[in-house]
Amino acid sequence: MCGIAGIWGQGSLSLTGQMINRLAHRGPDGSGLWSDEEAAVYLGHRRLSVVDLTTGAQPMVSSCGRYVITFNGEIYNHTSLRAELEARGRVFLSDHSDTEVLLNGYAEWGPRFLERCNGMWAFAIFDRQQRTLFLSRDRFGEKPLYYASRPEAFVFASELTALTAHPAVSTSVCDTGLRKFFAYGYLPAPWTGLAEARKLPAAHWMLLDCRTGAAQIQRYWRYQAHTSREYELADPRDLATELRERLKQSVKLRYRSDVPVGLFLSGGVDSSTLAALAIEAGQSVRTFSIGFEEKSFDESAYAEQVANHLGTKHHRRVLGAEVVPEFAGRVLDGLDEPLGDASLLPTSLLCEFAREEVTVALGGDGSDEMLFGYDPFKALRVAALYRSMIPDPVHQGILHLAARMPVSHRNMSLDFKVKRGLRGAGYPPPLWGPVWMSSLSELDLRDFAESKSDLEETFSEAIEAWDACEADSLEDRLCQFYIELYLQNDILTKVDRASMRVGLEVRAPFLDNDVVDLIRQIPARLKFADGAGKVILRQAMAASLPEGILDRPKKGFGMPVGKWFSDGVLEPGETRWGQPAAAQRIYERHLQGRADERGFLWSQFVVNRWMAALKGPVEVAA
């Protein structure tokens, strides 16, 4: 796991060095620079040594001298790919570097080799002969890749702070990007918080001609639920067995490392599954969990129950309210881009103390999205029935009555579920997901952001994802939204920033190619039934986990943020973007107990600190 950066055009090795120095936390074990002055191409790399500690330094040049790569990530099937490439006559200089597999894979197959890669990545390969720069990002967006195309130079990097080290890239903030941020709670690719920067979306590649400056961007893969007749007729017990076996193989692959490996354990079915399968695969398992003083948010007792049941070496820490202001400031001051997910804090603490013991950790990300584990999946059929029966004037009256329910700051409280559920049900189905998760109502968003845009424009990415789903069920369509928007831009971004802040690599076994290929073909009725998700996963793990763990409802890595704002532990601060008067009205509603505005207040808190930390003058651009 590493940090990468590069320039085509106006640049130098010294400037590239300044860029990668801003990524030192991502790669504390070493750095490297490479340039082709004639082509005006400069590549930089910061390394976290995980695989091939002695011969895997970067930027790496191919044995033929034609290709040069700077790479962030892991290719889990690099051993089998190397054997195939060697059989085709490709020469390797390293012992077992997955980086060199990418070089030779691109040399052999071109962009099509991405279809063979099982892993997580963001990389750039310069072809010295064709003078092209090829950039790519993994299927789900586990690893970040930002770029800016300016008249002076094309610049790319793992983080925005490295990008803005180049003088051609300003810190002007993006008005559209921030409006979408306050709507979603995260920045949907390709938008960023800066007007001159973009994110390469997951499952895309870019090819830049370093002679003309022409660039093309292309999607190479998309998650699609596709249930064949064979899978419809298959015995569910056989599918459960196959899912278990593929997950076990995925866990084994992700335990391969030249440095110590651990596992995040929440006590939920996802992380408990990974721990159980790691034990069965013969690993000595170290597990890590976070607890909260606020009991409605605390899952640590379940994590300890699983750890005791499986016999792992377990580690636990508690996040108390008294440390929140200092710790939040420390985490957010290093946050590269606004993120409205407050679970960034416990995730950061989890990564921080896991790093004391291990360099690599496994997490359960991806399961909730693909196996229908989130609460909104439970609301789909109710929302469809409600929408078909309740006329809009009656709906408005029900909303007014629901607003009178007493506010609770407990995790997933009844009033929170009712109010959010009703808010979304008033819109067409493609908007349900983003509206349910948004921190602001449509009226508040227009007021705060001074925007005349309607929700269809604001949530255009969510509508596109919903419509792109080829399956018919509401669950599969919501799944598409979660995978393409929430997983990529929130969950995986959060894990990447929290882990790389302390030089920890986090791997996601549920996102393995073979696991995903099976899950997408399993019928929706075997993923969600009787008001519960992950049915087939629970069936697959029934013999290995305690019944109380298997039957637990989804809790999530929530934070008592609403209470912290009410009690004055946190304050949103000066409004640096948006309308201060509107922000104050929302804050007062929260303080008076008339509404739960935890999502907006945290998002505002994050944006205010992010803008305060921007280097150079801050302007607003469309």
What would you note in describing this structure?
- Helices cover 42% and strands 16% of the residues.
- Among the domains are: 2-219, Aminohydrolase, N-terminal nucleophile (Ntn) domain (Glutamine Phosphoribosylpyrophosphate, subunit 1, domain 1, 4-Layer Sandwich), CATH 3.60.20; 229-372 and 484-550, Rossmann fold.
- By secondary structure, the chain is of the alpha/beta class.
- The chain is globular.
- The strands form 4 sheets. A 6-stranded antiparallel β-sheet has the order 2-3-1-9-8-11. Strands 4-5-6-7-12-13 form a 6-stranded antiparallel β-sheet, with helices on one face.
- Helix 24 packs across helix 26 (598-613).
What is the secondary structure topology, with strand pairs?
Elements: E1 2-9, H1 13-21, E2 30-36, E3 41-47, E4 60-61, E5 67-75, H2 78-87, H3 98-109, E6 119-127, E7 132-137, E8 146-149, E9 153-157, H4 160-163, E10 173-174, H5 175-184, E11 198-199, E12 204-209, E13 215-219, H6 229-233, H7 236-254, E14 261-264, H8 269-280, E15 286-292, H9 300-310, E16 313-319, H10 324-333, H11 344-354, E17 360-362, H12 367-370, H13 376-389, H14 392-402, H15 414-425, H16 432-437, H17 442-449, H18 455-458, H19 460-468, H20 474-500, E18 505-507, H21 513-519, H22 535-540, H23 547-550, H24 561-567, H25 580-591, H26 598-613, E19 620-621
Parallel strand pairs: 10-19, 14-15, 14-17, 15-16, 17-18
Antiparallel strand pairs: 1-3, 1-9, 2-3, 4-5, 5-6, 6-7, 7-12, 8-9, 8-11, 12-13
